[in-house]
Amino acid sequence: MIFLYLFITFFEIGLFGFGGGYGMLSLIQTETVVHHHWLSSAEFTNIVAISQMTPGPIGINSATYCGYTAVHNTGAGMMMSILGSATATFALVLPSFILMILISKMFMKYMNTPTVQSVFTGLRPAVVGLLAAATLLLCNEENFSSPVTNPWQFYISLALFAATFVGTMWLKINPIRMICYAAFAGLVLLY
Question: Which of 42, 60, 104, 111 is deepest in the core (most CB within 10 A)?
Answer without folding.
Answer: 60
